[in-house]
Amino acid sequence: MFDVLFPVAQGLVALCVLVVFGSIGLTFAQTSKRAVKMEARTHVATLSMTVFFVLMYVCIRFHLGEYPVPDPRVRTLSLLVGLACIILGTIVHLWGRVNLGDNWSSQIKIYEGHALVRHGAYALVRHPLYASLAVMFFGAAIMYRNLLVLLADAVLFFPAVYSRAVQEEKIFTREFPAYATYRQSVGMFFPKLTRCSRAAGSVTVNRYALTFCRSTTAILLVLAIIFKIKFLVVCVFLLMLWGALFTIQYAPFFVLYHVFLRRFFKQPQATVDIAAVRFAQGFGAALLLIALAYLYVIPSKNAGWIFSAIVAISTAFGAAGYCVGAQIYFALKKILRHG
C-alpha cells in the first residue's frame, strides 16, 4: 500500500508547493504598485522563508534526519496524516491570501487605504498565512518521518514567524483602533477553542454552501469505498473533526464554495443549529475513527468500509436536507430534558 500511495502523495505535495508559490507571485504583482504609508523592515520575509523551505527540501531529499520505520502500516499512516496536513495548510493559505488581497506585503507595510481584514480565515486566526506554512512543514515532517524538519519547524520557523507577528501587531494596534478588540477575540496562530465551544444558538448560512459541503463529503467517502482509498477516509475524518471543533462557517468545503462558486449561484439562506451541526460532525468523526482503526490496526476485511458507508449514507441524507446526526442530537436533548 505504501509503495502505491507514495508517488501519488509526492505529486500532491509538489502541486501544493506550486500553488503556494504561485499565489505568492500573484500577490507580489497585485501589491507592487500600492503606495506605502508606513514600513518596518524584518529579516522574516518571503526570501528568508524561501531559504528555509529550500533547506527543508534538502533535508527531505537527502534523508537527513529521517527516522526509520520498518512497519509499512505505520509508514502508510504517517504518509496519509502528513499529506492531509499539507493539503489543509495549502487550503488555509489560499483562503487567507484571498481574504487579505492587496493588503499583503513581504515586508511589514501599511498601505494608503490599508484595510484591517477580519473575515474569512482571519476570523479564525490572526495570522493564517504563517500558521498554514507551519502546518505544512509539520505535515512534511510527519509524512517523510523527518525529525530534523520537525525540529526546525518548532525551533526555527515558528519562533521566527511569531517574532514577525508580534512586530506587525504593534504597528496594527497603533494604526487600527479596532485591532485591540480583534486581538482579544481571535487567536494568533491557533483558534480559541474555548470561544468556539461556547458558540450556541443558530446561525444563518448559505443553503447551497451547506449542500455542497455535505454532498462533497459524501462523494469522497463513496469514492473511498469503491476504490478502496484509505487516504480519503483519513481526509474526511479530519474534515469532520474540524467541523466538530469549529463553527460551520470555517468548514473547508464551506470556504471553498464561498471562494470559488458563490458568485455563480443565488444565495438562498438556511438557519442551522450550531450545536446540532457540530454534534453531527463529531458523531461522524467518531464513526470514521472506528473505521480507520479497522482499516489500519484491527484486522478486518470489511468492517472499516461498513462504518465508512454508514457515514457516507448519513451525510448524503444531510445533503438532501435530513441531517441524521442533528436528529440524534435533538432526540438526545429531548430525552435528557425530560429525564
Description of the molecule:
By secondary structure, this protein is mostly helical. The protein folds into 2 domains: 2-191, Four Helix Bundle (Hemerythrin (Met), subunit A) (Up-down Bundle), CATH 1.20.120; 197-338, no CATH class. Helix content is 69%, strand content 6%. It has helices at 2-31, 46-61, 72-100, 128-143, 147-175, 179-185, 193-197, 207-227, 230-245, 252-261, 274-296, 303-319, 324-338, and strands at residues 36-40, 108-111, 202-206, 269-273. The strands form 2 sheets. Strands 1-2 form a two-stranded antiparallel ribbon. Strands 3-4 form a two-stranded antiparallel ribbon. α1 packs parallel to α3 (72-100). The longest helix has 30 residues, at 2-31. The radius of gyration is 21 Å and the shape is globular. The N and C termini lie far apart (49 Å). 33% of the residues are buried. The model is unreliable at 194-199 (pLDDT under 50).
Q: In terms of structural class, how would the helical and strand content be classed?
A: mainly alpha
Number of strands: 4
- In order across it, which strands form the biggest sheet? 1-2
Instruction: Sketch the major β-sheet.
Output: 2 strands, antiparallel
What's the order of the H and E elements?
A: HEHHEHHHHEHHHEHHH
Mean pLDDT: 88
The radius of gyration is 21 Å
- Helical coverage, percent range: 55-70%
So what's the overall shape? globular
What is the name of the CATH topology of the largest domain?
Four Helix Bundle (Hemerythrin (Met), subunit A)
CATH class of the largest domain, please?
Answer: Mainly Alpha
Count of spatially separate domains: 2
Report strand %.
5-15%
Given as residue ranges, the uncertain stretches (5+ residues, pLDDT < 50) are 194-199
CATH architecture of the largest domain: Up-down Bundle
- From the N-terminal CA to the C-terminal CA, the straight-line distance is 49 Å
Q: Give the number of helices.
A: 13
